[in-house]
Amino acid sequence: MRPNRFLFAGAILAxxxxxxxxxxxxxxxxxxxxxxxxxxxxxxxxDPDGVWSDDDLAFIRQLGQTPAIYTARITTPSGEWxxxxxxxxxxxQGMCTAxxxxxxxxxxAVTMAxxxxxxxxxxxxxLNYKKLAxxxxxxxxxxxxxxxxxxxxx
Length: 154
Description:
The chain is of the alpha+beta class and 154 residues long. Helix content is 22%, strand content 42%.
């Protein structure tokens, strides 16, 4: 029995396509370090990580809200990164201030970026620790890709 040329050509083409597609997917997974903010301290009166002061949390309460803290953390070769957010500084589109903190053993924590994120949102820290990518919402309610430089903030 003679092999079908079209079947053989199709198998070769499928192999080439999968060789191209698989590395692209692997590359995407390695774009950076992913943060997913989770509500870790509901009804916060004190921030266990020390990012937000007790006065910050009391101010949220004075505005008639129950302060909540959202956090995400990752450990990298450069140290522990903490993304922290409260529900107290949000605009009408639901975009809230967050702080990206770098903690290294034996050193004081350093604030590295202050992005705007949807409450409980996600962010991606680049592999070289220089950019923070976010998914945001603009003033018209449309999705927007945000990008923040990562460097010490005085």
